Fold this protein.
Amino acid sequence: MRLIVTGGLGFIGSAVVRHFAANPEHTVLNIDKCTYAGNPASVLPVSGNDNYMHLQADIVDAALMQSTVNEFAPDAILHLAAESHVDRSIDGPGEFIQTNVIGTFSLLQAARNYWDTLPDDRQAAFRFVHVSTDEVFGSLGDTGAFSETTPYQPSSPYSSSKAGSDHLARAWHHTYELPVIVTNCSNNYGPYQFPEKLIPLVTLKCLAGEPIPVYGKGDNVRDWLYVEDHVSALATVLQQGTPGETYNIGGRCELSNLEVVKEICGIVDELRPDGRPREKLIEFVTDRPGHDFRYAMDISKIGRELDWQPAAAFSDGIERTVRWYMENESWWQAILDGSYRLERLGIHED
């Protein structure tokens, strides 16, 4: 297949690129703006391959997106490019509207115009997979889970911008018959994740012996999905999914933030003991504004219709992840040497 992957230097996008570009039968064009979270080192395992290309471009540039899609002539577009950190959306929501809403619109229009020119057989085979988040559904109480029919109730600038992009993607299918599939995933973790996110942040704080900030009481609950499981789900959706459908993707692993933090502390203590438990570094800090209490995903549909299930147990995935950060200091040190210093974002103080 000829695949366009947007956001392929980011955390999930780079995992998608590494997966498909490792197969010489595929040709992958990675469109990535190279923002702070886009790291060329994340695709080094495949960057020298003849079947991999990178275009540094902003998906908001409609004319460039149209010419790029026309010239590359993809069989599918996997759209992962997004501003994705809730705390940053609190500090600067404008970038989230531009990339997540306007950028998605530009891509959908480019895909639609290109798709209209294809012969019938290629039209039937073409797919536009729009990758989104469980955060569009809002927050759950102590019970229940999000399904594909759960009403949207986003509560942050980030999740609102992703909700808008989801609605656009579905509208381009229903109005123009573009073969769009939407996926909504739970919290991802794994190697190559930018260290502003919880798991790499806590890992690096542990290694540095620095205070570990935990929002509120640490009782906010997330469903954790190992990134390689997410990639396998997206590959399955691309190959077998039905245009116009939505598929929830999750790890069936609900844990509170505090449970995750303590798990990481224990792993670092075991692998690199320093004389005192890393749990002593935990500091409870003022909660994030509008912090959703709990997310949980009902993934029965993708299991039933596409025969997909997550494979990684959290205990295995989190140990592999922590070990990766310990063994790949050059990757994250280059980030810390730049503009990001593990500081807290999204405090929103007047």
